[in-house]
Design a protein that fits this description.
This protein has a three-stranded mixed sheet, covered by helices on one side. Helices cover 39% and strands 18% of the residues. The N and C termini lie far apart (25 Å). β2 and β3 form a beta hairpin. It is of the alpha+beta class. The radius of gyration is 12 Å and the shape is globular.
């Protein structure tokens, strides 16, 4: 949780942005409890976090693309939205990117 929160902030900083500039957080979908904890640590609204782990489970590297697809298809993520996507792999690797949809 701490690593996902810190890479989210540092990635936004490198992009010249802050959390206030983010429209959506689409984190790795390990479990819903972890996603809620990341949002709380970041003080980011939980309703702006895309959570699909209940539909797909933890599908490893596919969790973020699946969550993006669901949120784009159901109309949550719209053209021009800024989306932040932190990920963690087995606790040993991590990364994050910020895109404008």
């Amino acid at each position: 949780v701490e690593k996902m929160a810190s890479i989210t902030v540092s990635t936004l900083e490198k992009a010249g942005k802050t959390l206030a500039d983010a429209d959506w957080l689409v984190p790795h979908q390990a479990n819903s409890r972890m996603i809620r904890m990341i949002a709380r640590q970041l003080r980011f609204p939980e309703e702006k976090c895309v959570v699909t782990v209940d539909k797909h489970a933890n599908t490893s590297a596919a969790t973020i693309p699946l969550a993006l697809d669901v949120a784009a298809r159901d109309g949550r993520i719209k053209q021009g939205d800024r989306v932040v996507m932190p990920a963690l792999g087995a606790g040993l690797t991590w990364g994050c990117c910020v895109i404008s949809w």
